[in-house]
Specification:
Layout: E1 2-10, E2 14-21, E3 24-32, H1 43-49, E4 60-69, E5 74-79, E6 104-106, E7 108-110, E8 113-115, H2 117-132, E9 137-141
Length: 142
């Protein structure tokens, strides 16, 4: 299964994008501010531009697995090998205060926020769990 996140709304505090699964719109995604990071940059370039807990992850392609989150005390999707970042997960949340680089799904969007995040996450997580039983999952962020 291929997830594609296209960042469409960028502000000084957050980024909102549209998530598609195999080309079909699934939900909106809220992230921290996009500072133009790219997966192809060096670690030193990334850390120079990154503002800790206030920066969207680099655009690029990442494998997704499901693992236990110590912070949330439950199983959640985890993006692997995100340069200059650790523990990037997909989880519910509504504003940039709810993310430290993670991807927050929402059914609707408003300025600097997504809404109905728990509903959007539940639907997305169920699809991810089913797909993981038969194939690897990847997300491309642009």
């Amino acid at each position: 299964m291929e997830l594609e996140l296209t960042r469409t709304v960028k502000t000084n505090t957050s980024t909102i994008g549209e998530l598609k699964i195999n080309g079909v719109f699934e939900c909106f995604i809220l992230e921290d501010r996009d500072r133009g990071l790219k997966q192809s940059m060096t670690i030193s370039e990334l850390t120079e531009l990154k503002v800790r807990t206030r920066t969207a992850i680099p655009s690029g392609r990442y494998e997704i697995v499901i693992s236990f989150s110590q912070r949330f005390q439950k199983m959640l999707p985890l993006l692997l090998n995100v340069p200059a970042f650790e523990g990037i997960r997909i989880h519910p949340g509504n504003t940039d205060a709810d993310t430290e680089g993670c991807l927050l799904p929402g059914k609707n969007k408003a300025p600097d926020m997504v809404t109905n995040s728990r509903v959007a996450f539940k639907t997305l997580f169920e699809k991810i769990q089913v797909a993981m039983q038969r194939e690897k999952l990847f997300i491309t962020i642009s």
